[in-house]
Amino acid sequence: MKHFTQFENKSLADSLIEKALFYKSNPSIDNALGEGKRIGCIFLNPSLRTRASTQIAAINLGLEPIVMNMDKEGWALEMKEGAIMNKGTVEHIKDAAAVLGSYFDILAIRAFPSLTNKIEDLADFTFNQFVKYSGVPVISLESAIRHPLQSLADMITIEENWAKKESPKVVLTWAPHIKAIPHAVANSFAEWAIGCGHDLTITHPQGYELDESFTHGAKIELNQSKALEGADFVYVKNWSAFNDYGKIVSTDPSWMLTEKHFEQAKEAKVMHCLPVRRNVELSDEILDGKRSLVQEQAKNRIYAAQSVISKILG
Amino acid sequence: MKHFTQFENKSLADSLIEKALFYKSNPSIDNALGEGKRIGCIFLNPSLRTRASTQIAAINLGLEPIVMNMDKEGWALEMKEGAIMNKGTVEHIKDAAAVLGSYFDILAIRAFPSLTNKIEDLADFTFNQFVKYSGVPVISLESAIRHPLQSLADMITIEENWAKKESPKVVLTWAPHIKAIPHAVANSFAEWAIGCGHDLTITHPQGYELDESFTHGAKIELNQSKALEGADFVYVKNWSAFNDYGKIVSTDPSWMLTEKHFEQAKEAKVMHCLPVRRNVELSDEILDGKRSLVQEQAKNRIYAAQSVISKILG
Amino acid sequence: MKHFTQFENKSLADSLIEKALFYKSNPSIDNALGEGKRIGCIFLNPSLRTRASTQIAAINLGLEPIVMNMDKEGWALEMKEGAIMNKGTVEHIKDAAAVLGSYFDILAIRAFPSLTNKIEDLADFTFNQFVKYSGVPVISLESAIRHPLQSLADMITIEENWAKKESPKVVLTWAPHIKAIPHAVANSFAEWAIGCGHDLTITHPQGYELDESFTHGAKIELNQSKALEGADFVYVKNWSAFNDYGKIVSTDPSWMLTEKHFEQAKEAKVMHCLPVRRNVELSDEILDGKRSLVQEQAKNRIYAAQSVISKILG
């Protein structure tokens, strides 16, 4: 594995999950693996869990993390090939990524989508420019269209909470939100859940259809109650429209899960990547109750990152 | 000692002071104590001394510090229970504090007051929400109403500069300032000076009465000259009004200490927590002269933090 | 060597270059040199390469780096002696620098010029106030008038790319830019190139004369083509006017180097400190071609810093 940017195959996913669970029991066991090496964590956008968990994962492996908030401590990067840089951008990604690549053994990068330029977002343009020009292994800390460390943590969490032989019924349900939110978490979760062999149903109000290249293999059921019937895991997430790109086409509050939504799924666990808008996306009742796995998911972010870095280090 | 948020009792204070002085002579002696452990330093407000000294204290103990500027690198936190989060706040303290608590062995938090919502400030609401939901030991890096690491450093500094058997006469004097400043340093200094058995006099223009729950046991003397008579240590600090909450009710420049204020206190030492507004709160003459202990106080911030972290670790 | 703020003499420069090349081959060889010591990296301005390379250099030497973005995480500093601080500045450099000096074994500081107050800029006022009041060795991470770590990295790069006995012909050429840019890199490069015995020619449109105290010993040739004839190394850099201080007096695009500028300097290598405005200062063709040494220069920033810190540590 050179880069970690998306789901590759079930065998690799299984091995990453297994390694993560091993590290969860033995966080410091490989603390000499990264000796004398460095990971540069480049943030073009804000972060809480990802920032902390990636640093901790690196430290657990003896790797030195250096965090850079490019947007705040550095300057605006130019992404376009051949640009005549006589406007606001100060440094071209070609130069900046190559320098960072020469300074670090691994780069980890967060680059959100514009939600306005669909073509560039779909090409994961900013993120891929880093990959193209840095010349070193790159880990996605959430790109325009994927959040694979989150999804790996999610798969670990499902693994820990599912003892049966048959595949769990996993439901990804859209939730209301007041802002236009990227598709990265929803895309990645679908990609990983399907790839890992879970029985995935996706439900959302009309107009919130996701990019089919991520959802191929999932059932789509626009009736939320029907979708939830018999669910083992319910993944709650808002996203903006994909077809009417980046738009909010409904904020229907009835889609916010409350205890009464679980009449046909008494045992279902509830997942969310956080940050969550309480009582907008998910009710306090659910988040503070027994169904919630959100804290387990967050904790597993450390071991997901540790597993990935370890695999890249070799 | 689980948390470090305020003065507890003289015996604990004495033991923290003693340990701090020991570390000042032997900074690296316990550099394996924090091995494999982490402290998360969460700043909701700016910092210079506190930021650097807490990191250094942690490193001296072999503990890995990770600093997060929540306000700049993260997002706005919701503090209210049961909030419907359809406005500017992105994550509830319930979720964020629990995640941080699961990532770190100790959390250190800076959360200034609003100076507008007296009830919430007095309840130290933001800070206490972190304590309530993180589930791990929490160190105050200055809360709405207290700055205990500063006060501990101040007590260490007095200890180092006082050889006599009897208690020193300590005067806390209000000083002019152009902005409305929190009560945290003044409250905490009073709490610790009284608790440590010093003979404390507080002086300020009428209207700047502090919260009596912190000053019980101190003499209040509104005549500054009288208050300063025979002082051994003069602690200079501005604060805004407590009764007319958060207001500036006087900026009388005669309250700024100059050499002529010390005619009845020839040997008095002068203290200030920094940052200080020169020639507004305190004259250059005093700050650059022999009376000033401000640099010693600042240096002792390292050992105060090191003593506290060490006590929490075990 | 106590501070590292400028070119001192050829013998010291040679020894720093030699040490840097040694560290480039053996980055971790002295990783116990800085044990138990700390370097504070204080940024009053943004940074990418300097921020990362200085941290890496410190880590390579076992020295703990702590980065502080004073402008963003701290507050505005007052620089003027005797100031009555009743305006926007929160802490005097006297106090802040002394505290930082008591916390760290070495300070590294970035302080850009105003480009409006020529007298203060020429006196390197902000930077020198740090030096004056910190009491510890100070490394310049770019001051108002010099960028010596960049120049040292540049000299290392020339050393690596020049095998002949005679001095190389080095040309410093002004390049167009859309903003008013400091003189620090140009000044320092001239100072170091001349001091290291290179044959330096400086070329620029009329009105962009540099401060003669840095260029004494260089040929000045206002005809760019003539200047470039027979060049071995061409250092490209924009700067604003020095006489008409801080002004943009020409943006003549013909000064941007393209391949056709090298007809009389077929073998010339091209250097730039980065960040570079592509297709404004330098063409893609040059930056992406074989002449470009910009990535080598950037990489050498690590070893320049490592050499300097090592020399200061003793």
UniProtKB/TrEMBL annotation, chains A, B, C:
Keyword set includes Amino-acid biosynthesis: yes
Coiled-coil region: none
GO biological process: citrulline biosynthetic process; L-arginine biosynthetic process via ornithine
UniProt superkingdom: Bacteria
Catalytic activity: N(2)-succinyl-L-ornithine + carbamoyl phosphate = N(2)-succinyl-L-citrulline + phosphate + H(+)
Molecular function per GO: amino acid binding; ornithine carbamoyltransferase activity
EC number: 2.1.3.11
UniProt-listed Pfam families: OTCace (PF00185), OTCace_N (PF02729)
Pathway terms, separated by semicolons: Amino-acid biosynthesis; L-arginine biosynthesis
Protein residues bound to carbamoyl phosphate: 47-50, 75, 110, 147-150, 273-274, 301
Domain Aspartate/ornithine carbamoyltransferase Asp/Orn-binding intervals: 185-310
Record-annotated Aspartate/ornithine carbamoyltransferase carbamoyl-P binding domain positions: 12-160
Residues that hold N(2)-succinyl-L-ornithine according to the record: 142, 177, 237, 277
PANTHER family, alphabetized: ORNITHINE CARBAMOYLTRANSFERASE, MITOCHONDRIAL (PTHR45753), ORNITHINE TRANSCARBAMYLASE, MITOCHONDRIAL (PTHR45753:SF3)
Function: Catalyzes the transfer of the carbamoyl group from carbamoyl phosphate to the delta-amino group of N(2)-succinyl-L-ornithine to produce N(2)-succinyl-L-citrulline. Is essential for arginine biosynthesis.
Entry's family note: Belongs to the aspartate/ornithine carbamoyltransferase superfamily. SOTCase family.
Name the record gives this protein: N-succinylornithine carbamoyltransferase
Gene that encodes the chain: argF'
